[in-house]
Amino acid sequence: MFKLPELEYSYDALEPFIDRETMELHHSKHHAGYIAKLNKALEGFELDKGASIEKIIINLKKDIPIDIYWDIRNNGGGHLNHSLFFKMMSPKASREPKGHLLDLIKKVFGGFEGFKERFKSSALSRFGSGWAWLLLDEQNKIFIKSTPNQDCPVSDDKKVLLCLDLWEHAYYLNYRNRRGEYIDKWWNVVNWDYVTDRFEEFKN
Ligand code: MN
């Protein structure tokens, strides 16, 4: 049985960029809802001992029987994506990545501002609900991608460095239909120390 991970900060800690009510609903209703449906879908299914949600989504196509495949893809993906996303934010946000990751971002995107523009444009072009990602592949290349619904790029053997929730429930209370403004403000709470640590952990 999967349990809702606790946030490492209070619901109002990301204000004024992400408001308290949005955070509370997002964590205690939306994230919790994905976990409840995931657990329901897994009833009667024998999981490997100690299987993490990440392992399940990495091996989705290989391990999960067709009758529960979409429930696990959507709700298991929802659980994993939100677990990642809430850690990507912090009230003590560092403004930029550091070290090798910063160098690489500058090289690939022509600067940190260039990276933010490309990420925003990918996020804005996602039609409907989904996610924007900064990913790392097996060749140590970083790239931006967006995916629909709760699909997670770990299912395609990519490592997640950074992710942004583009579902309206992530911003509608405060930003209404202004996804672009939500993205602009979100940079203020990105936990680049955590993103940088992930890069150092995953790069070959
Ligand atoms: Mn969400």
Shape: globular
End-to-end gap: 33 Å
Unreliable stretches: none
CATH architecture of the largest domain: 3-Layer(bab) Sandwich
What structural category do the secondary elements indicate? mainly alpha
Please state the CA-atom Rg, rounded to the nearest Å: 17 Å
What's the structural domain tally? 2
Fraction of residues in H or I helices: 40-55%
Mean pLDDT: 97
The helix tally amounts to 9
Strand content: 5-15%
Going across the biggest sheet, name each strand in turn. Answer: 2-1-3
- Spell out the helices and strands N to C: HHHHHHEEEHHH
Ligand catalogue: manganese (II) ion
List how many beta strands DSSP finds. 3
| Biggest sheet features | 3 strands, antiparallel
Q: What this model shows, in words?
A:
There is one protein chain. By secondary structure, the protein is mostly helical. The chain has two domains: about 20-85, Fe,Mn superoxide dismutase (SOD) domain (Helix Hairpins); about 100-204, minor pseudopilin epsh fold (3-Layer(bab) Sandwich). The protein has helices at about 20-40, 55-60, 60-65, 65-85, 100-110, 110-125, 170-175, 180-185, 190-200, and strands spanning about 130-135, 140-150, 160-165. The radius of gyration is 17 Å and the shape is globular. The two termini are about 35 Å apart. Bound molecules: manganese (II) ion. Manganese (II) ion binds near residues 30 and 170.
